[in-house]
Amino acid sequence: MWHKRLLCGHASVCRWLVLFGGLVVAPEIVSAVTPQDVATGRLLFEKQWQSSNPAMGSDGLGPLFNATSCVGCHHQGGVGGGGDSRFNANSIGLDAIKLSANALRSDVQRMVRTLHPSLVDSSGNLQATATLPHFGGTLPMRSLRQRYVAHSSSEFAAEGGAATPADVRENMTASWKWKGVTAKTGMEIEARIFQRNTTALFGAGLIDQVPDSDLERQVAIQRRHPEVSGRLSILRDNTYGRFGWRGNLSRLADFVDQACANEMGLQTKRREQPTDLGMPDYRNPGIDIREDQVLQVRDFIAALPRPVRAKPRSSEHASEIALGERVFNKIGCNACHVKDMGPATELYSDLLLHDMGDRLYDYDAAEPDVVRAELIRQVVAIGAATETSGYRGRSVSLASSPTPILTREPVYQRTPRRSNALRDTVVIQPGQRFTRVRIINPGSCEQRNIHTPMQEQMAYRRTLRPSNVTQEWRTPPLWGVADSAPYMHDGRAETLAEAIAMHGGEATGSRDRYLNLGFAQREALQTFLKSLIAPPTAPQPTTLAASR
Asked: Using CA atoms, how far apart are residues 361 and 194, in angstroms rounded to an integer?
């Protein structure tokens, strides 16, 4: 397995150079961080972006967006903090399709498109999720958003996310049925809204510097553990993920790049903004935020202070905190919530993926479990389908598309929660284009020449291990946890006690030991967790803009 990597701190940007004559790793120092970069990054983080006329070079904010600024969602405890459930990002998830006799593929595609056009990709395959931006867009997009709010039995806030953690739970436990009838068959879709909570960014610059060797060491340690078995999130470019609920982003710059495009509709050098369903052919003529500006936002986030321990109020309070941490370790929480990872001391996370049980599923899945990756050169016909990775994770597909199903009884097709693929190939570098000519009936009067556009590519041919990718989550750091409610990936838990009780899968043993604790030990554990606070020196918002 080719695993040579170049680690970069936030003080410089390092790039890889891949050449077709062989693989060359070339560190390129692009710029050193200055106080002015950090100051400019903060201005950009708090900037209220606005839409603009594409004829002027780019379209600015949107057309689809969840907020008008970074601080619009990241503000708990100061600039760069998390956000409550009102700022959750939403997506529609396709749980199952009920089909009656003789349902054709075209019937299914037509029905699913009425639910959300993006649930059917350009090749006609069904996708399990599609994003639901909070604001902006043409009338069809706004009508689609209003339809979901009307169908939901829970309440949505003006900011676009769930009004309370209870509404998040309601969304997950009560799916709705979308009925439709074609000329040939009646069908029914079961769907629900999935949500992602805004994470705090304090100390992110230290996480960005955690060495790969520390991640690999935790995997080795947990192989010997009787309950937990965290794994690396190995991304398509063969780097390790550190950021995002699924660990699907390797570096802090990647996180900023993706967030600009997906949360505010700001097209970057590498990321396209989301497509408005009412204008499927529209493309932003330029970029909305320059590369140097993306890196300045990264530099500001990297400069944010790390969370701290609250100063004990008394010697008795200090003893209670110390007891709580001992209980935390005794019941096994520290197996995943590892105290120190490289320079990120008192992080309380191993930054690995763990199966958290079937009650914590979401179809924007984790990366597959990669056992081995071989760097290869391949030649493909241009236009061959390739897989892409979504911002919140890889969207899984329904197991198969009915073409047709011949039965007199209703048939249910459920979205799989597990990846059973044993191999895949991911392209990392496109190369030279050329035309391949194939001659049919050469030398005869019926000779035909078939010209096929081809392209050389560098790719990884990967061996995979089956994994519950829809149930695997990166261990969230606990530093600053006292100031980052609500909890869990979608903010379904209002309190720390609720969050612990909702653990499952690999964390079942620790959860049960917690539930069996006496009152005094439970209270001590809570006291310890509440001592992990946001940095008191975090900058405070100059303005907290409306996110619409």
From this structure: 9
**What three-state secondary structure class fits 357?**
coil
Q: Among residues 135, 147, 137, which one has the least CA distance to residue 193?
A: 147
Q: For the segment 386-398, what is each residue's pLDDT rounded down to a tens digit?
A: 333 444 666 665 5
User: Cα separation of 380 and 52, whole Å?
Assistant: 39
Location of structure tokens 């436990």: 173
What is the DSSP secondary structure assignment for residue 397, as one 8-state letter?
B
Helix (H) or strand (E) holding 451: strand 448-465
| CA neighbor of 476 nearest in space, from 491, 486, 489 | 489
Backbone angles phi, psi at 487, to 5 degrees: -120, 170
Helix/strand/coil for 159: coil
Q: Maximum Cα–Cα distance for the chain, whole Å? A: 98
Name the β-bridge partners of 372.
Answer: 463
Determine the 3-state secondary structure of 506 from DSSP: helix
**Residues paired with residue 473 on neighbouring β-strands, in sequence order:** 354
Nearest to 413 by CA among 192, 100, 87: 100
- What tokens were used for 380? 């493909």
**3-state DSSP assignment of residue 433:** strand
Query: Which contiguous run of DSSP H or E holds residue 500?
Result: helix 496-501
Enumerate residues 6+ apart whose C-beta is below 8 A from 389: 235, 236, 248, 367
- 80 touches 46 (CB < 8 A): no
From its phi and psi, is residue 263 left (phi > 0), alpha (psi between -120 and 50) or beta? alpha
What's the DSSP call for residue 224? T
Note whether 193 and 91 are within 8 A (CB): yes
Of 415, 383, 479, the closest CA to residue 96 belongs to 415
Secondary structure class of 515 (helix, strand, coil): helix
- Nearest C-alpha neighbor of 545 from the set 47, 44, 40: 47
Nearest alpha carbon to residue 357 among 509, 460, 544: 509
Task: Write out the two tokens for 414.
Answer: 């459920």
In this prediction, residue 478 has a pLDDT band, given cuts at 50, 70 and 90, of: very high
pTM of the model: 0.87
Give the whole-angstrom CA distance, residue 48 versus residue 340.
Answer: 36
| DSSP designation for 507 | G
* Cβ-contact 66, 259 below 8 angstroms: no
Which two three-digit tokens encode residue 453? Answer: 């556009």
d(CA 398, CA 111): 14
Region of 124 please: left (phi>0), alpha (psi -120 to 50) or beta. Answer: left
Contacts of 473 (CB under 8 A, 6+ apart): 245, 246, 353, 354, 356, 360, 366, 489
| Backbone CA torsion sign across 407, 409, 415, 417 | negative
> Nearest 5°: CA angle at 131, between 365 and 53?
135
Give the DSSP letter of residue 434: E
- Where are the strands (E) in 197-270, listed by range? none
Summarised one tens digit per residue, pLDDT across range 182-233 is: 545 567 888 889 999 999 999 999 999 999 999 999 999 999 999 999 999 9
> What Rg, from alpha-carbon coordinates, does the chain have?
25
